[in-house]
Known about the structure:
Elements: H1 7-14, H2 18-24, H3 29-37, E1 43-44, H4 46-57, H5 63-75, E2 92-93, H6 98-109, H7 121-130
Parallel strand pairs: 1-2
Amino acid sequence: MTRQLGPEDLGKVVLGDLETFSRMVDQKHESIIEYSRSLPSLVLRAGSVRRVLRDLLHHRASPAEAQRWASFIRRGYIAGIQDERVTPIQISYDPADEHQLADIVSRLDELGDSVDGEISPEELEAMIASLPASDGML
């Protein structure tokens, strides 16, 4: 039997846990909103992005999985699972690295796009190297 997801799982998703995210995509958006209300805040940090980049680099995640996660982080909802308009949840970016995190998440969100849809191992390695290692994560 599959374990019911909860607020701690949403926290894991923001920490870059793509395995948990793959289970979260089947949740109704109302449930995700409830999970977010149970957490003090959702903050994306460099270690979370580094985790996703490493998973992508080492083929533990597909470009489609990384793209869908980045889309969720950027928009606050899982695109394509709702027919009606949704209220996004608030996911903040660590203010110390906000612009860099936003740039990388935006680049990941382009994966699969007909123009910028591929990312090389060299580009992934450069993005990983550009992230600060002092955030205490991964």
